[in-house]
């Protein structure tokens, strides 16, 4: 790798990707990222709340519950609406390429991207029968499937409608980009749900990587691209920002999958090895299964049998011995390195790229 | 009513609204409408198919099945994609206000409106657990809930994205209008599904009318408004076209509800009194229940008891004796009259309004 494609070498250290907590550059970046996230929330929240509050009565109530602003009975809550990384990326990309004016102009677009993300969460939870989201019961489990589907549908319409109505010259291109991204997100989720029903041995690693890029990378890339559009960036820079976000998003997913197996329950809030217990075909598992090793044969046998808590350690060990953990960590580092290259292509000045860099490192260092 | 607000008196005859089949103006209008629908299908189908075929693999297959272009196994079908009234209304409104050039320019917008309609059908069928649509098994019953939800989500994104990318100057306003309409459709469906769980006696007629307007009238109105936008019409004419479509859509729903009780099974393809058997809170039933008559008391008792086929005739008679049928037919005629007034406001020349008029009368005279 040449220095031209990796100008932020001091921060994009391979070994540190996905490390849980600790001190050093990661910790200080985490503080910087937290400050960026907080500033983004302060900017975007009023726009987001105004959009949601414009929904008709019952849909508004469902959406407000989902965002953690209300309890199920309609009383106010000081809830947890998630880290809102995507709107922060919209604003950071706009600021990096167009300065404070572009950041200010992109606030509505940032809110629209966050609405799209939440529309997909509402629907994914219905499809995956996930009962908990952000430490609270999911919308479908409180209000029923129909309300969750309808609130999601309405949030998608709200997002694309408010983006179209934005008088900013980039608004039309942003609608087209976000709409294309939604199609990709749906395709990724479709492959994911279809994969659930397939035999683990029949799932190819390339398929799971493509699915993860569509399901997780696409919207993170889109958020960065929308920010670039709102900064009036050239098409190639918009595309580079999209690629940056996609690669960082994929790195995030790889780390998330590692945490899903080896994460510390005290940090993750989930039982140890949660993904193994539900026989999830996560990236480290599929990499392990396709390794051609003896450990892969053992893992396949364990995955084919019903889950026994006593087998958990053996299963995690088999994934590790088959090289699944090392592969995922290398892949994550490689993706982050590619992300840095794309970022450097669009924004050669590391100073300007700082916000995006901090956010990308934050999501790939997360321990919960 | 003054002649100024009802210039199309010879066609908007009260008594004929909702009449099933027969000869006279209805039959010839039906032929005219059929020709308009066929021309619209020829114009819109290529755009619609191109949009759907741009979806990624599995989503494309699900959508192509839904539209009746493919069987579930992926082999081609010469299917029934529905009457496609909404895109025909887009084109008819554009033609009425802007001539053939406006009609030609509105083809993509017409396809987008049809995509939105089909997105709502896919989701409504999941929520309502309807197993049959256009004489074929619904998508969820063939592919599962997740695929039906995702295909619907993708069709909404496709619709708004292709509308945003349309270089026509009306495109942005159309995206905003269609997005607002989707929110209204969701709100209507939300009220409808919530109503299912409520006691029939607690449901007010105004609520059901508002729900029907949101669920059925809004998109028909939106279709007409989008056509007007593409003709470059003044805002007040766009709004009048919207109101025309809403009123006609509500008339359609009233007639549909009458057919759901008294329709001839040979025409409707559904068993006689199908809506009564499932205790549907349709407009004639709620009107009957809130009539304060002795028949309303009897109807309430019948609706509170489990369905017995032997009670069907008595139940239908109770709705009729309580005035539910006459009310619905009068309301439908009244709504059609209001629709005509709105149309005359925007398009004073009956010759120019002919296509919209034929379509509106077609949907409210339908017998299946």
Gist of the model:
With 368 residues, the first copy, chain A, is mainly α. In chain A, 71% of the residues lie in helices and 1% in strands.
Key features of this structure:
two-stranded antiparallel sheet; 71% helix; disordered N terminus; 16 helices; mainly alpha; globular; 1% strand; Farnesyl Diphosphate Synthase; homodimer; 2 strands; 368 residues
Structural overview:
The structure is a homodimer of 368-residue chains. Chain A contains 16 helices and two strands. Chain A has 368 residues and is an all-alpha fold. Chain A has a single domain, classed as Farnesyl Diphosphate Synthase. Chain A has a two-stranded antiparallel sheet. In chain A, helix 2 (57-66) packs across helix 6 (145-165) and helix 13 runs antiparallel to helix 14. The longest helix of chain A is centred in the N-terminal third of the chain and has 29 residues, at 25-53. The A-B interface holds A 55-59, 119, 123, 126-127, 144-147, 149-154, 156-158, 160-162, 164-165, 171-172, 175-176, 178-180, 182-184, 186-187, 189-191, 193-194 and B 55-59, 62, 119, 123, 126-127, 144-147, 149-154, 156-158, 160-162, 164-165, 171-172, 175-176, 178-180, 182-184, 186-187, 189-191, 193-194.
